[in-house]
Amino acid sequence: MEENQTRKIIHVDMDAFYASVEQMDNPELKGKPLAVGGSEVRGVVSAASYEARKFGVRSAMSGVQAKRLCPELIFVRPRFDRYKEISKKIRAIFKDYTDLVEPLSLDEAYLDVTVNKKGNPSATLIAQEIRKRIFEEVGLTASAGISVNKFVAKIASDYNKPNGQKTINPEEVESFLESLDVKKFYGIGKVTAEKMYQLGIYTGSDLKAKTIEFLDEHFGKSGRHYFYLVRGISNSAVKPNRTAKSVAAEHTFYTNLTSEVFMEEKLERIAEELSRRLQKHKISGKTVTLKIKYSDFSQQTRSKTLPYFISDKGLLFENAKELLYQEKMKDSVRLLGISLANLNTEIKKTVVVQLRFEF
């Protein structure tokens, strides 16, 4: 813990970012239940306003289900160019305080302010100032978590949402984690949480009581990770220049595809877009992965690793097509994607390509 305690990490998370941008740009939407993405008959909700969340509407939910939960729900198309524009303004504010900024997505980032450009020894006051500036200069609210490492800071940022912040001081870290439901731990998903419940592990305190041997036996290589996390031990540094692990392009279709012949045509377009981006950044890779999302929203991936690096559209398409016919489709398909991993270059930012949405 000694190394962790020297760090002052802030996790800033914008409040309902996509939906908040839409409400800011269109005052008629303010105070109303709003879903970005999807529709009453098609698509998936990308983000929901807090007014919609009160009805149980959540991201990744089908538009049909969202409308069922909230009949007054308003659907708007996502405008990713606009979200990126706002995100750049927010990151510019971050850079006024530290160059150690690690974006996780358009709407959240870690900041290491242990040593900062303002010479302010209080990470709590810096977080307050950043949130105030975002509201005054951009027009949106943000929440923040402040602690000794990224793991605890991220959990803390969700504690007083929306438009709030929470500081977990070094001496409070372990007791804070002990009191939490394990499902609140960043990195413990629904399936793992259910498994922990079955083993009698409901809180951080329960998790802390288990030995490394017990956790290794039941959770494999993740067991040791959980053992240290619940003790507040996480030495991952804020990395402003994260190396890309994969590059991807995908496409959601307006009408579900029922034939591999039609899928081939779509895959060729996706391969072309992916190849263009790869070559623009001078990246190539060996592992091709085909992503398939079915009409029931279940998802499947199929991968193959080549003995050589590729970035060419033709090779991407041929390998993706081979994966397409690897086994029979179980249902109609609503999304296809191709990603390339096992890269041969170190790029200074993650590149993920999302083709035009069709809802």
Q: If you average the pLDDT, what whole number results?
A: 89
Main β-sheet, spatial strand arrangement: 5-6-1-7-8
Number of helices: 14
Written as H for each helix and E for each strand, in order along the chain, the element string is: HEHEEHHEHEEHEHEHHHHHEHEEHEE
Shape: globular
Named at the architecture level, the CATH assignment of the largest domain is 2-Layer Sandwich
- CATH domain class name of the largest domain: Alpha Beta
At the third CATH level, what is the topology name of the largest domain?
Alpha-Beta Plaits
Strand content: 15-25%
Contiguous runs where pLDDT drops below 50 for at least 5 residues: 1-5, 346-359
Largest sheet: 5 strands, mixed
Task: Round the Cα radius of gyration to an integer and report it.
Answer: 22 Å
Measured as a percent range, the helix fraction is: 25-40%
Kindly report the name of the CATH homologous superfamily of the largest domain: Reverse transcriptase/Diguanylate cyclase domain
The figure for the number of domains is 3
> Which structural class best describes the helix and strand composition?
alpha+beta
Terminal CA distance: 49 Å
Binding site for Mg(2+): 13, 107
GO cellular component, one term: cytosol
EC number: 2.7.7.7
Domain UmuC: 9-189
